[in-house]
Structure formats: structure tokens, C-alpha cells
Amino acid sequence: MALNPKTQSSLSRHTFWGVGLRFTGLALQLVTGIFAARVMGAQEFGAYVLAHTIVLLAGGAVHWGQGDLALRVLPKASAKTARRLLWNSVMATATSVTLAVPALWAAELAGARLAPGWVLVGTLLALHGGCLTLAALLSACDRVLWVQVIEAALRPAAMLALIGASALFDLSLDATLLFQCGIAAAGLSFGLMAVCLTITWKRRVPATGSSPLPRISQGFPLLATGWSSLFLSQLDHLVVGLVLGNTALGLYRVASRAAGLVGLVQQVATQVLGPRLSHALAAGKVSAARGLTATSAQAATAGGLGVAAIIMILSSPYLQYLGPDYQQAKHLIPIMTLTQICALPFGSGALVLILTRNESRLLKINCFAAIFGACTTAIAAHLFGLIGVSIALLALLPAHKARLRHVVLKTKGPDPAIEFPSWARTGSGKQRRLGRS
């Protein structure tokens, strides 16, 4: 069953504006990062990156998977089920923040110090976790564009404006000031999304009939799966910061930020497509979902290759502008860009495994990749430094993506191959027949 023209038009419009807003936000983040790296130097910038990485990892667990559960349950939830889901999300986030206070205090007493201080780290952690919860609830209510406007555009714009204002007042830019600006921007984003969710919730038309009330524990498998993916995305920064120190992390960050632009197109397509894919599968429109996601994967791959070419051309001027502290990163950008290119054709298998209720398989793959990747990158960092970490990731990331794709194509269920374009579905005759079913 195909989606009606109105739904297809809406998906195209959401994808177009979603990609535009995400690129705008990334451009603002890139400008902010370049300015901060240039002014602060590699060592201080690396100290900020390490603290921010910890915020991302801890903040990703604050909601206990309730946001991911909402993305699956809310589109077909009754009014009572929706209220329970909202209550579970609020309670999970509030409980996590409450438990984080004594944990941060204990870390301070134990002598574990980060450059911004644990108070600022904890504050940003709480706000970031709250923003993730609100963003997931809004996305589940089919308000993806609202999330993109606030999180992908307004929040980084506010961050850049605050940093610019601090420069006008001749304030010394360091990790502490960057975190203070980040807290203000996250607070603005949290407030706006809370207002948007309130408006959306009042206008939401609940599904007819009754549906099972969700339990908080139902989000735990989704939390484990989502957090394992988040950990994998931040693993290299964590290893470099802990093993090689802040200066090396500053160098690594400016290189990975540039190379990460390659995978952005696919990330945007996946993020915009996720709620729509959830709605399509919930409605049983599998063939329509297959066609839409296959087209999305093809466009993401083509766009990523174009971005890679631009990065290779502009990498030298980019590092020259940052200053002499960062010239050692010139050998890292080509390797990291090649890593992203090699991972592009495999699509987003993680999304398909989640939406087809195969989180346990994804979790097993991610856990193995996390343990093996942490050991491999740590050893490579000790033996060969930053080049060793980059080469290790060149082998690890495409292999992980390929493994996910292999599992997706072998999985039975509502057409698990929907995420992959036809030219990416290779393998045995049985697998090819599954992809066409």
C-alpha cells in the first residue's frame, strides 16, 4: 500500500527543511567551534571537548529511554496511554537529575575534576537531558520541524551570540565561559520546546480505543540500545582525551568536526525520516516505507560524497585559519573523511532494527563494538598516537555498519531491508529475495 500524495509531499517538505535547518545549525556550531579553537588553543579547547563529551554521554541516559519509547508508542496511543507516557518521561528525567547531584558531589570530593567544574557540568547535563526528552516527545507528535528549528538552529545561534557578546565585553574565553554560554542556550531551548509541547499536547487527537499503559521499564532496553550507539559515536573522543590528553583531543576534535560533515546528510535523513517511518509501519504501509527510505539512503550517499570532495579541498585553509597549534591535524582529516565515505553505502541499520523491534540484536552488536573498539583504539593511541586512532576507526566504523546491514538483511519481520537502496542490497539469493519482498 502506497502513501497518499499528501503524505509524500509532507515528507519531502519536512526532509527539505529539516536538512536545511540541520545544515544551518551545523554551520553555526562549526563557526562556534572554529572561533573557540582558534582563541583558546588546542589544550584548553581539548579540556572543553572532554567535559562536553561527558555531558553528552551522561545526558543521553537521563530520560531512561522514555523518549525513544514515545517515538514508537505515541503515534497510536490513546489519551490515557499518552498521559502515562508523558508522566513516565517527566519522572525519569527528574529522578535522574536528582540522583546526579550527590554523584557529582562525590566526584568532586574524590578529586575528579573537569575544566569547567562539576557544578557547570551537572547543570548542562540536566538541561541537555531534558532537551532530549522534549525533542523526542515532539518528534513523536510529528513536530520534527519544530525540534529542528529550536535544537538545530536557535540553540547554536544563541550559543554563538553569547560567545560573541562575551568577546565584545573582553571576557577571556575558556572552558568555563563556554559551558556558561552552553547552559544559557540549552535553557532557552528547553523553555521553547516545553511551550511547544504544551501547545501540541492540547491539540493532539488521541487514537480511538484502549491501549496498554506503558511502564517505565519498557524504556530500559531502548535506553541501553540508544546509549550504546551514543557511546560508540563518542568513543574516539573519550579515548583520545583520557589516553593522550587535552592537547591531543583538541587536535583530534577539529579534524573529526570537519570529517563529520560527510555523514551529516545521512544523519539528517535518518532523523527526519524516523517519525515518518514509525507512522508508516504503524499503519502497515510497508511497501511505501520501503520506497521512501530507499530513496532517502540514495540521496544521503550522493550528498555525502559531494561534501567529502569539498572537505578535501578546504582542509588546508581551514587548519591555517585555526593557527599553528592545529597544523598537526592535517594528516588526520583525509583518514577521517575516508572513514565516513566507506561507511556511507551501508545506510542506517540501527534505525531499522529499532523500528522492527530487534533492539536486542542491535544492543549485542553495539556492546561488542564498544568493547572491541575501546580496546583497539586505546592500544592504537598508546602505540601510534592520533594517527593510530584514526586508522583504527577506518577499519572499525565501516565494519560495524556492514555488520548491522548484514543482520538487517537476514532479519525476518516487516520488510527489514527498507532502509537500503537496491544497489546496496547484495548477498545471497535468499537475502535479495527478502529485500524485494
Automatic annotation (TrEMBL):
Keywords carried by this UniProt record: Cell membrane, Membrane, Transmembrane, Transmembrane helix
Protein name as annotated: Membrane protein involved in the export of O-antigen and teichoic acid
Membrane topology: Multi-pass membrane protein
Compartmental location: Cell membrane
Native species: Actibacterium pelagium
Transmembrane segments: 21-39, 45-64, 85-105, 117-140, 152-171, 177-201, 299-319, 331-355, 367-397
Classification via InterPro entries: Poly_Biosynth_Transport, Polysacc_synth
GO cellular component assignments: plasma membrane
Primary localization class, coarse: membrane
Upper taxonomic lineage: Bacteria, Pseudomonadati, Pseudomonadota, Alphaproteobacteria, Rhodobacterales
Membrane found in the keyword field: yes
Top-rank lineage group of the source organism: Bacteria
KW DNA damage (keyword) present: no
One Pfam family this sequence matches: Polysacc_synt
